[in-house]
Amino acid sequence: MDSNKANPPSKPIASDDPLWCAVLPPDATIQQAIQNLDESALQIVLVVDGDGTLVGTVTDGDIRRGLLRGLTLDTRIDSIAFRDSLVVPPELGRETVLQLMHANKIRQLPVTDSDRRLLGLHLMDDLVFPHERPNVMVIMAGGKGVRLRPHTENCPKPLLPVGGKPMLEHIIERAKADGICRFVLAIHYLGHMIEEYFGDGSKWQVKIEYLREDAPLGTAGALSLLQPVPTHPILVTNGDVMTDIRYGEVLDFHNRHAGASATMAVRLHEWQHPFGVVNIRGVDIVGFEEKPMVRTHINAGIYVLDPEALGYLSQGGNCDMPTLFERMQQDSRRTIVYPMYEPWLDVGRPDDLSHARSQHSPE
After folding, report:
1. How, if at all, do strands 241-243 and 334-340 pair?
2. Of 113, 106, 157, 154, whose CA–CA distance to 127 is shortest?
3. The domain 133-359 belongs to what CATH superfamily?
């Protein structure tokens, strides 16, 4: 093994991930740690053993204290590593991570699994000022919005104003705040109006391109028109979903789950039965439930797809997203869910539009 590198664990961290510039094995020297801190500029060294387990962390303060104790530049770093480092699981949300970092006065926070295998590293600067991500976000904006007529007779649904700006603009601005700067809008019905409004995206300091559907292709079919095929996971959302979700967290969640070909954001939906339920076996009554609460997970219309998922689409063919997921499952591909708890609204009916507008006052 290279004395300057720990063996990367299996996914989710790719071998070329910038995080690996901060990783050293326990037998690396203090001299190598100093060089690492200088080259990575991350202000932390992650000491990781050959199994990918986080042994501890080293900062410049740990190095100074070690040298004051009489250690030399040739001393192994496991002798100065802080072994009780605060770590967080991958599912912890951005706001909670920031609160922990502020409370503990730290600017770096390792992400590990339950066995302390290293999965990632939260950086204060990236959380507050997100770096630009390489991912493309595709927004399905071609629907006719039939249920929203007459609002959509002369205006495509994604351009309907909420809080003084189109729904689609809310989505783009929220994604940009998470470092997403490349967008592809799939358009059909009154698509020219969307193109005229957003243009190439320069007004929002992003890049916007278009997929023009000759006929409606469903919630996934337009992805077959993507050229060239992206090399990073693709974020996809319906153009009529208003939510406070952190799109970057959905991407990170997908990346941290090894072998996942596709991720679907789901939301818990609760519905109370209006009647008392009688449970029977044959003709015998075996129990009663008085207006039971039914809990199910519903599709939130937000997805992350590995580029290989596009291979399950036919060029220019109609396909909805659940069908695409089923095709991957039938081929033994791993598909997972991202449980979301943020406010969410699928603006499909006039009542939904009124509710969305009541929740967003114009700026």
Report:
1. unpaired
2. 106
3. Spore Coat Polysaccharide Biosynthesis Protein SpsA; Chain A (3.90.550.10)
Q: Tell me, what amino acid is at 321?
A: M
Strands (E), 174-314: 180-187, 207-212, 234-238, 241-243, 260-272, 277-281, 284-289, 293-305
Measured CA to CA, the distance from residue 65 to residue 91 in angstroms comes to: 34
How far apart (Å, rounded) are the C-alpha atoms in residues 181 and 301? 20
pLDDT one-digit tens code per residue, 123-152: 877 777 767 899 999 998 877 766 666 666
Q: Strand pairing of 23-24 and 45-48?
A: parallel
Identify the CATH number of the domain defined by range 18-128.
3.10.580.10
Torsion of CA 3, 108, 131, 138, to 10 degrees: 100
Residues ≥6 apart with Cβ < 8 Å to 95:
none
Contacts of 69 (CB under 8 A, 6+ apart): none
Type of residue found at 248? G
Residue 110: which of 55, 49, 180, 184 has the closest Cα?
55
Residue of 55, 60, 59 lying closest to 7 (CA atoms): 55
Two structure tokens written together for 110? 């390792």
CA distances from 120 to 104, 264, 271 (A): 19, 21, 38
**CB-based contacts of 42: which residues, under 8 Å, 6+ apart?**
21, 22, 108, 121, 123
What Å distances lie between residue 145 and 28, 197, 220, 351, CA to CA? 61, 18, 17, 13
- Domain ranges in the chain are 18-128, 133-359
- Alpha-carbon distance of 92 to 199, in angstroms, equals 36
Q: What is the pLDDT of residues 238-297, one digit of tens each?
A: 888 878 788 888 898 898 787 889 999 988 777 788 888 889 898 878 888 888 887 778
Dihedral of alpha carbons 121, 122, 123, 129, sign: positive
Residue 209: half-sphere exposure toward Cβ, Cα within 13 Å: 12
* DSSP label of 29: B
DSSP state of 195: H
